[in-house]
Design goal:
- This protein is of the alpha/beta class and 435 residues long.
- 38% of the residues lie in helices and 18% in strands.
- A hairpin with a 5-residue loop joins strand 11 and strand 12.
- Helix 1 crosses helix 15, helix 8 packs across helix 10 and helix 9 packs parallel to helix 10.
- It is globular and about 65 Å long.
């Protein structure tokens, strides 16, 4: 292993999450239980996946931490911001994702994770009513307070490094507005002018994280770091950024199944996707402006895999619809249905139905873990700006749309990008081609 270019994962890694709801309380509980040997981090690529390095006689299959220095679960310290004041134990119990028997053994540790006051603006998530929020602060004052929070947390917990991840609700759709989002100077001016329309609270978190030398992960479909101003800041601070939106259930299926159609040269007439879920995420997405943000991210998947210009006979004018419905009885147990109308030989129609009864937080927790550990790795490897190798974990991977770049949504190509990046950081040859 030749890790000369990657700094070691020495000391404690502070993982500071925005939002202490179902996903993050499940994530924290699972990590703490795994540390005690009471649970397994199933679904986590960093803990389980093996990749080939070398060829021929030199070929071997290794876990990620045998290729690159990845932070150990025992070195993680958790912090959070949330609009609700409940600590991680109360949040985990309230979310009802995990059974009490799977939470109680780490109750003492979870109770110590008390959320800091959130930088919050009700106009961006009208359904949330928490009172653990910064009061009367301008956007710039929010930034200053968040930077102070990060510094204090890092010092108090003796952390060598910090990663900040957004795992809070989806904000209302904020279209990219060139006069504010086009450059770092313009964004900073808008923050100082307290432009509440174009500067979402999530942008304050991202700005604060990057300025404090922490990678930032956008786990919702928010516009937050997907703007040239933030790319400029990531370059300036030499910090990694990635997003957007954790790829968990339906989109994971879509990004893995659509390649079956393209590889087998089968045509597509339409793909209808619908979901029901009842957790806080579902409640927020019940508002049309918030759903719009999610819809944009979920719709982007197919169009980059099944392309008309590559196969006009197969993929011209297919109909793609995505729906999410708030349904409280299901809580975190999301159910998705996909109806896929395809056609084959001589244009004869066929149908595929996929019904996925998934648990949103159970799928999201390992994705959050992997993104935090791999963003920390990227920072230690001197990688900064958009981390395209993390596209595997994200619904709507970031890309430079100003240059006409297209995101890679094809699951197997994403996995190849991930493997090649790890090989390179580990001093091996990035030897898999992406067709």
């Amino acid at each position: 292993m030749n890790n000369a270019n990657v700094k070691p994962a020495d000391g404690k890694l502070g993982i500071m999450v925005v939002g202490l709801g179902a996903v993050t309380s499940t994530f924290m509980t699972g990590v703490l239980m795994a540390r005690k040997g009471l649970a397994k981090p199933v679904g986590s690529m960093t803990q389980y996946d093996k990749i080939r390095v070398g060829k021929g006689e030199d070929k071997k299959y290794l876990h990620y931490n045998e290729i690159v220095p990845i932070a150990d679960l025992n070195d993680i310290v958790f912090g959070a911001w949330d609009v609700y004041p409940a600590d991680a134990y109360r949040s985990a119990m309230y979310a009802e994702v995990l059974k009490p028997a799977d939470i109680e053994p780490v109750k003492d540790e979870l109770e110590k994770i008390v959320p800091m006051k959130a930088a919050f603006d009700k106009n961006f998530a009208k359904r949330l009513d928490g009172d653990n929020v910064m009061v009367g602060k301008t956007r710039w004052e929010m930034v200053e307070q968040l930077r102070e929070d990060i510094r204090t947390f890092k010092e108090k917990n003796n952390c060598a490094r910090i990663v900040v991840a957004w795992a809070a609700s989806t904000e209302i759709y904020v279209p990219v507005f060139e006069p504010v989002h086009g450059s770092l100077a313009a964004l900073e001016k808008a923050m100082k002018d307290d432009d509440k329309e174009h500067v979402a609270p999530s942008m304050c978190y991202a700005y604060a994280a990057l300025m404090e030398g922490a990678p930032f992960i956008m786990g919702a479909p928010n516009t937050t770091v997907d703007i040239p101003a933030m790319w400029e800041l990531a370059e300036k601070t030499k910090m990694p950024i990635c997003g957007k939106d954790f790829k968990t259930g339906q989109t994971l299926v879509k990004s893995g199944f659509a390649p079956i159609l393209s590889t087998r040269c089968l045509g597509l007439d339409g793909w209808f996707s619908t979901n029901i879920l009842g957790n806080r995420d579902g409640l927020v997405l019940d508002v049309p402006e918030n759903f719009r943000t999610k819809e944009v991210s979920k719709l982007s998947t197919l169009e980059t895999i099944l392309k008309e210009e590559e196969q006009p006979d197969l993929y011209t004018d297919y109909y793609h619809k995505v729906r999410i419905n708030y349904y409280p009885p299901r809580n975190d147990n999301k159910e998705s249905w996909d109806n896929i109308d395809i056609f084959g030989w001589m244009n004869y129609p066929m149908q595929i139905k996929i019904n996925f009864l998934c648990r949103d937080s159970i799928l999201a927790a390992p994705v959050l873990l992997d993104l935090c550990l791999l963003s920390d790795l990227a920072a230690r490897a001197g990688k900064f700006g958009i981390q395209r190798f993390l596209s595997f974990f994200l619904k709507s991977p970031m890309h430079d749309y100003t240059q006409g770049e297209e995101a890679v949504n094809h699951l197997y190509r994403q996995h190849t990008m991930l493997k090649n990046a790890l090989r390179e950081m580990g001093g091996y040859e990035a030897d898999e081609e992406i067709d």
